[in-house]
Amino acid sequence: MPEITVGELLARSLKAEGVDLVVGIIDGAHIPFVTALAPNGIRYVNAHHEEAAVHIAEGYTRIARKPAVALGNPGPGGANMLAGLTSAYGEGHPVVAIACTRRSAVNNPDRGGAWQSTDLVAMAKPITKVSELISRPERVPEMVRAALRAATSGRPGPAFLAIPDEMLAQKIDPDTLRITPAANNRVLKLGAGDPALIGQAAELLATARRPFIYAGKGVLWAGGSQELVALGDHLAAGM
């Protein structure tokens, strides 16, 4: 099979994980990735600011109940995403932020260009569930899987991946790599709750004199919004 760019590999890896939306601001280094999105069935939306890109991706995760990707440029472009990631971390939105770093050979503030040599991985760690640098092309599928698994497992939240800007244009043989469906890597659908615990909760609600339901975002991710409203109406409960 002909070699593909690492940008194409990144697009294929995201598609395998069920991602169908990327929001960001295009940098020259992104072109091998962005041009591979549409052929892989992923929509690209251009934002006016990287923080806004994260917020757009957040909104999409709430409506579509699936992860979305935000894309940023080296240095200040990636740093602009941090405020949005703080929101995604606090609200529990599975946004995967991807930013290029300055070229590996010159990615050192002591060599000049410190503004674009910001350590984005370290800056993102406190406000993401995982923050990593993709240092080798062949690790793209593996690290995309890990980022999506972290973002969607337990309480959802953002993940951050950095990739050197020269890597996206590099060529790689896809036959040497393994891209697997999302169902092989993480839980895609929640199972039913413990019947005994559900029965206890139902008994408490049914016998409460002034029932009040404080619902979390898990109702949204489970697709149970209509059922929650129906339960509240049945119990005449506050929510």
Task: Give a nutshell description of this structure.
With 239 residues, the chain is of the alpha/beta class. It has helices spanning 6-16, 31-34, 50-64, 76-91, 120-124, 140-152, 195-207, 218-221, 225-235, and strands at 4-5, 21-24, 43-46, 68-72, 95-101, 130-133, 159-164, 171-172.
Description:
- The chain has 239 residues and is α/β, with parallel strands linked by helices.
- It folds into 2 domains: 4-184, Rossmann fold; 195-235, no CATH class.
- Helices cover 38% and strands 14% of the residues.
- It contains 9 helices and 8 strands.
- The chain has helices at residues 6-16, 31-34, 50-64, 76-91, 120-124, 140-152, 195-207, 218-221, 225-235; strands at residues 4-5, 21-24, 43-46, 68-72, 95-101, 130-133, 159-164, 171-172.
- The strands form 2 sheets. The protein has a 6-stranded parallel sheet with strand order 3-2-4-5-7-6, with helices on both faces.
- β2, α2 (31-34) and β3 (43-46) form a beta-alpha-beta unit.
- α1 (6-16) packs parallel to α6 (140-152) and α3 (50-64) runs parallel beside α4 (76-91).
- It starts with a strand and ends with a helix.
- The model has no long low-confidence stretch (mean pLDDT 89).
Summarize the SSE layout with pairings.
Elements: E1 4-5, H1 6-16, E2 21-24, H2 31-34, E3 43-46, H3 50-64, E4 68-72, H4 76-91, E5 95-101, H5 120-124, E6 130-133, H6 140-152, E7 159-164, E8 171-172, H7 195-207, H8 218-221, H9 225-235
Parallel strand pairs: 2-3, 2-4, 4-5, 5-7, 6-7
Antiparallel strand pairs: 1-8
Helix pairs in contact: 1-6, 3-4
